[in-house]
Amino acid sequence: MANSVAFVFVFVYLPLSSYFQAFHAMAHEWPAGGSTRFYDFKVQTMRVTKLCNTKEIVTVNKMFPGPVVYVQEDDRIIVNVTNETPYNATIHWHGVRQKLSCWFDGPSYITQCPIQAGQSFTYEFTMVKQKGTFFWHAHVSWLRATVYGAIVVYPKTGVPYPFKQPYEEHIVILGEYWLRDVLQLEQQVLASGGPAPPADAFTINGHPGPNYNCSRNDVYRIDVVPGKTYLLRLINAGLNMENFFAIANHKLTVVEADAEYTKPFTTDRVMLGPGQTMNVLVTADQTIGKYSMAMGPYMSAQNISFQRISAIAYFQYLGAVPNSVSLPAKLPNFNDNLAVKTVMDGLRSLNPVDVPKKIDANLFVTVGLNVNKCRSKTPQKNCRGMNNGTFAASMNNISFIKPTISILEAYYKKIGGQFTVDFPGAPLQFYDFANGAPNNAPNNTQAINGTRTKVLKFGSRVQLIFQDTSTVTTENHPIHLHGYSFYVVGYGTGNFNPQTANFNLIDPPYMNTIGVPVGGWAAIRFVADNPGVWFMHCHLDIHQSWGLGAVLIVENGKGELETLPHPPADLPRC
Ligand code: C2O
Asked: According to its UniProt entry, what is the function of this protein (predicted)?
């Protein structure tokens, strides 16, 4: 059939009612999924003024946040990305499983070379059996700081939500904003060997809100009708912080996490790490007024400086006095680990799920920070980490170093020298990870560098245990896996102990980013049925820059439907 061309450029800051109605007006003409949707993304710089400061930021189509991609389950998405900036760019479609389309996944030097200045690349993939709230973001350096936007995938026509149809839907993207150039900032932080400075502001849909300087009118607002129920599509696109989110006097009912339905779970607040999305229902059942929606820090690590001012948006009832002060939202303390656990405990798949019971590949992977010895002749400049060392991060004590061409290309074309296949299935040394990790920095806290991958047979049933370590500090790490969703079958504090660990094999949540508890562990399971090269990394960009990642290579199976197709002709060159 003829492909329908849908340029649905809708701004998150428009009143959503108008575009939601527009969507419904169109929806009945659409076939039940399986359409093709085209988008044009121009990566462009734009001058913006925030916090009394004007600077140039990188955007898509001069929008911040960027354009929303609206599609339906099983639709094909074609996005032509043209890079009109002087910087390298790629776009990753976070949470999209990219079944047999690994070439279009987007992480730089993993599945593709960056799109260089003036070049373009067309991403083409299908939302196979996926629906819900996703997002896209740049996947090179720290460009994600301003290059991000939502992907909303509606169910097929005629398929209702498994909850009462909300009156309206709104996208709420949490972000972090820097006054400095983020690409330079990454370079400077890495060159210094020291920690990353905090963001200058948290933002909700790009707006810091009234708690920040010069931002009284730089605030996002949802106008609500008393008595109606709203669906908020929460997305954490932030760079280096995990965040709590709450609305004054209103309960949130979680109905979806990482684009998979959950059993409804009602709570006063939620926590999202970067890379996580969550749909919540909110009913405007309070007295007419103006209420704060607040985004604040969740910081589980020790001795790290971070932004403490909450970003505020308004949840404003029709009929409220416009200039009235808003009722403040109650956020947990920044280090409230119990609040985080409570949210995790509440996440259950809506229906019973098919969790692999037998395991073919059982991996144990430590995640954490390191301090390497100073190798610079100017330590005052370059060794500003703990005890005059340089900070690093690792999985199984190996810091991931990016190759010079993409691993997928090297793997596919059998080009040697880019990566090795010896990522260990367990740490080289066992010790009391949670409480007794080596901490005599930089003497026993070094990591090994490498571009190591783990090769998995097609169809193998995989269990991965992530274990946080206490070198430098324990910390909650949002670990993201490309190419898959996984069942979060268990988690806990302390060291993982197979004898005492309690697994939920009935209705665990099906996620793509798991916050490994601070000083604890998380267990995930999935079937490796999507061939390709898949990045697995901490979604805190500073940790990723320091090497907290590894790559899983899933081999082809038999036949066309289990084999990765050829690369596209316009695949960028390095
Ligand atoms: Cu959302 Cu590898 O990223």
From this structure: Lignin degradation and detoxification of lignin-derived products.
Q: What is the pLDDT of residues 14-25, one digit of tens each?
A: 333 333 333 333
CA of 544 to the centre of ligand 1 (A): 10
> What residues form DSSP beta bridges with 493?
520
Q: Per-residue pLDDT tens for 452-502? A: 999 999 999 999 999 999 999 999 999 999 999 999 999 999 999 999 999
Q: How far is the CA of 273 from the centre of ligand 1 (A)?
A: 12
Cα distances (Å, whole numbers) of residue 86 to 147, 183, 275, 379, 442: 15, 12, 26, 32, 38
pLDDT digits (tens, 9 = 90+) for 481-493: 999 999 999 999 9
Helix (H) or strand (E) holding 126: strand 120-126
**Does the CB atom of residue 92 touch ligand 1 within 6 A?**
yes
Enter the pTM of the model: 0.94
537 lines ligand 1 (CB under 6 A): yes
Quote the tokens at residue 397.
């004590």
What is residue 195's three-state secondary structure?
coil
Q: Is the CB of 427 under 6 A from ligand 1?
A: no
Cα of 480 from ligand 1 centre, angstroms: 7
For residue 204, which of 263, 262, 246, 266 has the smallest C-alpha distance? 246
Ligand 1 neighbour 97 (Cβ under 6 A): no
Q: Is 137 in the pocket of ligand 1 (CB under 6 A)?
A: yes
CA torsion angle 177 180 184 186 (round to 10): -40
Give residue-wise pLDDT tens across range 201-243: 999 999 999 999 999 999 999 999 999 999 999 999 999 999 9
